[in-house]
Amino acid sequence: MATLGLAATTGCGGDGGTSADGTVTIRYSWWGADERAKKINETIKLFEKKHPKIKVKTDFQDYQSFWEKFQTQASGGNPPDVFQNAVTFLRKYDKRGVLLDLESQIDAGNISLSNFRAGVTKVGEVDGKQLGIPVGSNTMSLVVDKKVFQKAGVEPTAGWTWDEYFKALKTIHDKTKVPGDTGYFSIMYLYDLYLRQNGKAFYTKDGLGFDKADLTEWWQDGYNRVKAGIVTDPKIVAQDRPKSSLSAGHGASEFTWDNFTVRYTAEGNSTYGLAPIPTMDGKHTGQYLASLMLSASARTSHPKEVAQFINFMVHDPEVGKIMGYDRGILASTEQYEAFKPTDEVNKEIAQYEDDTAKAGVLGTITPHPSGADTIEAAFLRIGGDLGLGKVKVADAVKQFFDESQAAFQA
Amino acid sequence: MGTPVTLVKDSPLDTRKTRSAAPAALKRRGRRENLAGYLFMSPWIAGFVLLTAGPMVASLYFAFTDYNLFNTPKWVGLDNFTRMFDDPRWQKSVEVTAKYVVIGTPLKLLLALGVALLLAQSRRGQAFYRAAFYAPSLIGASVSVAFVWRSIFSDDAIVDRTMSVFGIHVGGWVGNPDWILYCLVALTVWQFGAPMVIFLAGLKQVPKELHEAAAMDGAGAFRRFWNITLPMISPVLFFNVLLETIHSFQIFASAYVVSNTYCGPADATLVYTCYLYQQGFKNAQMGYASAMAWMLLLAVALVTAVLFWSQKKWVHYEEDAR
């Protein structure tokens, strides 16, 4: 106990983690499950072998708990030195001075920004600051239960329209009794794509990029489709948690990140694949590359070592081979070329991102203002309440706008 | 928690009576003993100041500020308190908690008293039954039990299937906003062991002669229970009602786990502390969360005061007979 307390004190003192022989210890935390933990531990062993003067301590939780813990640590002035990050949290923690601007480390040559695929480093850039370095990129997609789609005789095609998509859901429900979709209308990232197809976006720089009438229409249609049975009843979705209703067999498709196919394949009993996002005009999907990144704490006492660690994790080909597409398609070209997927699922994800990039539909990500994480959760929750019939559409819309207002101010 | 100090007052250990008359040597010894006492108490005092009193004072201050955990708190006066009454989710959380307390607590106490009455009689295997009924109270508050609860009440699991046999189809309770709260009520009722043990102790104190005399006068079992047992154990009953009510108001872990950390479908298990936690640690509105915490304290204090006031009407203490 005494050593623990001592370590904590020195940690706050500012020269944390440097021992007598010059060995530096950095803390690295991330979210994910056991599968990812095994891979990450392997990559850390590799790093410590090549950098014997740097020790890495890890810590992981699932997504929800990760951010609760992170928030507490960060507000206590003791965030991990390096951590996994996503676009939703960049502005929030930048505003609070938690994130290290990696620009100086890039200038010092400790991190290289070259050899990244298709401008993906833009994701980590906010107001001219480089707040995160991408480890993998992913795209919103439609993950489908291939067996159910085949049974219903439905074939998703590139450029299909929303009308065609909803018709397909009905065909699936009529022929297989399985609802076609697990609840598209409460997914913030999908609504963002839909708005982008219509020349708007979910967020502006500091607010919402749509009005109450837009959301009323989107949610009213969603509610009607739950009632019609072509979208999974939110009751069932709640019961299936933490599994997805898609992998539980209670839905035939789900809008989510393309790399989730890996998880669903591990969870469910069917065959899962990727389908194009429906469009308004037969072309524009509104898609963009999002990314998981590594960020550093502004309070770290070892910015150089942290930068070396990040650089190793995003560029080393061996690390790419170990991680595979666990956090999305590998972001740097060294790693992308080092890992050639052999299994069907990973091959399909690579193919999907290739096709999407070639189709020329990829735009740049809309910036997420501070509070976006709270808003995403509210969108999901209120959407679910609406699907259950617990709240009227007008009240749901009002509530969402109220809660968003509070979230932006926090 | 403050008991160590007050207990000493009238106990034989109290040295104050002798102190004034005592010679200097004894006085010194008394001081040394006091010092030793404080030394032994110091871990508790340090813990109380650092972990309880300090945070409470801080939280009282935060309750009047806008505080997101990172920036300096901004004084906003009573804003956080007035905001609650315009917040539909806060109202929902009050409603859910009230429902939980009002339904869960009486059911739990009824069951505890019922089983205690059965176990108070001497029969074979009594020790086993007492242990068996008490066990859930020991493990019931744990997260793992909440997980088990979650799985037995989910769709197509044992509870759902059993009910289907009787032609009742609600699906899993866990995903059903109309039922999930009863899943939590069932979990608390299942932990009736602790109040049961206290009831048992109370029942042992009821003098047998009273029952015998009443039986001689021709009073039936129910009559004896109503007119003798119940008044005799009313202080114990009062203690249990008070303790369980306060305890119920503070439900958190089971609601958090059973509904899979999101307190819901349709906020159906959004108990007060769950919403407080969401506002504080998820939405970074620590000021609002602190205000909510103090509001809860006020509400519990009010309910406690009402219970204490009501005890004059139904709780009988021995000294009343003076």
UniProtKB/TrEMBL annotation, chain A:
Taxonomy, superkingdom: Bacteria
Membrane-crossing segments per the record: none
Pfam families in the record: SBP_bac_1
Database matches in SUPFAM superfamilies: Periplasmic binding protein-like II (SSF53850)
Record protein name field: Extracellular solute-binding protein
Species whose genome carries this gene: Streptomyces cynarae
Phylogenetic classification of the source organism: Bacteria, Bacillati, Actinomycetota, Actinomycetes, Kitasatosporales
